[in-house]
Amino acid sequence: MPINASNEPGGHARIRLGMVGGGQGAFIGAVHRIAARIDDQFELVAGALASDPVRAKASAKELGIADDRAYGSFEEMATAEAARADGIEAVSIVTPNHMHSPVAKTFLEAGIHVICDKPLTTTVAEAEELVALVKKSGKVFVVTHNYTGYPMVRQARAMVANGDLGEIRLVHAEYLQDWLTERLEASSHKQAAWRTDPARSGAGGCIGDIGTHAYNLACFVTGLELDELLAQLSTFVEGRRLDDDVQILLKWKGGAKGMLWASQVAVGNENGLTLRVYGSKGGLEWAQENPNHLWFTPYGRPKQLLTRGGAGALGEAGRVTRVPSGHPEGYLEGFATIYAEAARAIRAARAGGRPDPEVTFPTVEDGLAGVKFIDAAVKSSARKGAWVRMT
């Protein structure tokens, strides 16, 4: 079960949290705020919630943030909070992609831990700069690849590590949606507008928005590193400036092969993130839309359905399980697990130490790997499907 703050080194008091982005009209900011409070580990006390100062302060007022901690810019917030005795200990960055790097850099330099939405940055150079800065600062840096927080994803990771699948041979990931089947960005749809804008989203559209989730999930569960890829990024909707469909062949270090398909124009799909992993001794299948189930097939034996909190559940899944078996647990709780793990790391830092080895969350290095994946896919597609090695 998720930890209680009073049991942790440096515990008791909630972690003082600030947020950049996530104000009026935003989607992901509310998700982060809910997730941060599910395990009662954080208290939102400050914010620079929009790029427009007037809207930023109006958004803060709606959330009950005190007037003197409702900031018109993230720079003002970082300076003011770093100078306060009761200043924020961590900041949650929920802006469009192009702002992740400057915001994260500013708060790291102010001595504040960072929880950042994905992708980490829009360029490899920016991501490498953040990795170096995190090492220099010693601060906790968490990338919110929320699907790594699902109990049965933790179960799958543990089973692979335990050797239940034998030597991994095949890794296939899909993330299918249909919400951009029409040119939604031409209307007043805020989410579609920035996610299809190269200036705010970066060089990748679908590949950066959801393809990175599928890639991160595959890496997290298998523990494999990607060697090279061959990608075809397509734009089916006329007038769209970034890809809306991605098809990639994968070669993993060690010899495993795989495929990744991500699409936001696959009509009939809502949030079809799936992962299939096959080894010399068995296979695993997991689907986000039915997240409490994990199919395991030992070679030569009947397929087994493993359930969250049910018979066969491992400790790695149990420690991030909140409700009894048979009750739905998924998206918000997955985010909450990332925040709970971040809380354990931050509380350990309060006490001058490191969290227990069981604490697991996507790091700044994982974020860099995701940005390199996007970069390699864009380069491969531009070269008409040439194999590109990960660097």
Provide an overview of this structure.
Helices cover 35% and strands 22% of the residues. The protein is an alpha/beta fold. The chain has a nine-stranded mixed beta sheet. Strands 2-1-3-4-5 form a five-stranded parallel beta sheet, sandwiched between helices. Helix 1 packs across helix 11, helix 5 (124-137) runs antiparallel to helix 12 and helix 9 (206-222) crosses helix 12.
Topology:
Layout: E1 15-21, H1 28-38, E2 42-48, H2 53-62, H3 74-83, E3 90-94, H4 100-109, E4 113-116, H5 124-137, E5 141-143, H6 151-161, E6 168-176, H7 190-195, H8 198-201, H9 206-222, E7 226-234, E8 245-252, E9 257-263, E10 272-279, E11 282-287, E12 293-298, E13 304-307, H10 315-318, H11 331-350, H12 364-382, E14 388-389
Parallel strand pairs: 1-2, 1-3, 3-4, 4-5, 6-9
Antiparallel strand pairs: 6-10, 7-8, 7-14, 8-9, 10-11, 11-12, 12-13
Helix pairs in contact: 1-11, 4-5, 5-12, 6-9, 9-12
What kind of sheet is the major sheet? 9 strands, mixed
The level of helicity is 25-40%
- The strand order across the widest sheet is 13-12-11-10-6-9-8-7-14
Mean pLDDT, nearest integer? 96
Low-pLDDT windows of residues: none
Per DSSP E runs of 2 or more residues, the count of β-strands stands at 14
Tertiary shape:
globular
Q: What is the SS-derived class?
A: alpha/beta
What is the percentage of strand-forming residues? 15-25%
> What is the succession of H and E elements?
EHEHHEHEHEHEHHHEEEEEEEHHHE
In DSSP terms (H or I, runs of 4 or more residues), the helix count works out at 12
What is Rg?
21 Å
Distance between the termini: 39 Å
